[in-house]
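Q: what sequence does this backbone want?
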């Protein structure tokens, strides 16, 4: 038969297993002082989605990014959102000529937010656009 491990190794292994068992038993429970996790925010409004999407693409166009040349469908815009995009780019270019690119990008954010809010997301002209279904 084989030799027995030294006594200190057996005790050390037993202590390690006991410590692991104790820590594993408490790892799954949260301390009483911990606050509950925040829940994920609900879906954005159509106006906020419009603002985010249209402002992003208008600013990319002004900056001359690699993807700025995509068409309105590839950018995920409705017909009305594309009209806002084109107006925002025109206003941004005029602003850029007089005050520079940074000011033009700021103008685009304000311009798009106002128009998207006025038109409640500007989604009604797109045959394919649908409000996101509620998570369920």
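A:
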């Amino acid at each position: 038969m084989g030799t027995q491990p030294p006594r200190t190794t057996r005790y050390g292994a037993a202590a390690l297993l006991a410590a692991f068992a104790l820590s594993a038993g408490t790892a799954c429970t949260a301390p009483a002082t911990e606050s509950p996790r925040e829940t994920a925010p609900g879906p954005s409004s159509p106006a906020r989605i419009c603002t985010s999407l249209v402002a992003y693409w208008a600013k990319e166009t002004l900056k001359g990014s690699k993807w700025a040349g995509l068409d309105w469908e590839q950018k995920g815009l409705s017909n009305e959102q594309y009209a806002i995009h084109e107006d925002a780019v025109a206003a941004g270019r005029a602003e850029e000529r007089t005050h520079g690119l940074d000011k033009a990008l700021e103008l685009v954010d304000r311009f798009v937010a106002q128009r998207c809010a006025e038109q409640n997301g500007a989604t009604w002209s797109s045959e394919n656009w649908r409000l996101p279904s509620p998570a369920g």
